[in-house]
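Researcher: Go.
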Amino acid sequence: MNAVALGALFGLIGGVGLALAILRSPPARPIRLADRVDPYLRDTPSRSNLLDDERPRASALSGLAAFARPVLARLGRRLDRFLGGQAALNRRLARAGGRMSVEEFRVEQVICSSAGAGIGAFVLALRAFAGVGPPPLVGVALVVAGLAGGIVARDWWLGRTISLREERIVAEFPTVAELLALAVTAGESPVSALERVGRLSAGELGRELRLALADTHAGATLVQALERMADRAPVPSLVRFVDGMAVAIERGTPLADVLRAQAVDVREAGKRQLLEAGGRKEIAMMVPVVFLILPTTVIFAFYPALVSLTFNAQ
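Model: Structure:
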């Protein structure tokens, strides 16, 4: 790489850095309405950090994260406007546990796409400085593929998280249903039974029960809170459980019998899933037997006879 190209590269990097510094400076930074109104809406003044006994030590990574957070948030908002589908993404994030907002998810997609594009940029840098690697057109294609691949990979990981969470809910459901049946049989009301089981449970289904109780404390009826829980975790067994509880509460039928029946149905469904998984694994186990073990056995059986026939022919 000659001196002119190297100087142009350094000039481009310096120009981009200077432009970012000017755009992020206080005179050029846009002031939001929330920033103007926030100081007048605070109930108490902010506590000084000098009064804290133990303050977290600022590191270079935390400073870099604080510097890059506004840029990442802005890129995440632009990515959200480009991709769209915010309502569907909200439902998927709720199914994943609701521990992340749409903006945080888009920021993580931006980070993943930047990491993917960095691989293509590294290939281009190797081609430019060392003269090794694929042609520049392939490097540009790798950058574009890395950008798209990072976004798709983060979306795939969200789907994987949803699947694992729903599997845990299905595994926890029979025990939770039986505990609810025991509590209702002992004479507690449905809300009290949900409070007791939600306090004793530590899994994903227990967390959903606590969220449903929070909805009831906020003014929603028990049936509405359970329906929202079914919307957040649309597992078939949980949806049937919510429908059965709603019908039992509205019509006054014995709730304990409904809960026991739901637990038995889920356990039977789990047994069927285990049998189906065992059948699929059995078919998959035939692949190494047929293509590896059986040919090796045939070779060991026929090789001595083949060698003896060869020697006799000579």
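Model: The CA atoms of residues 103 and 250 lie 39 Å apart.
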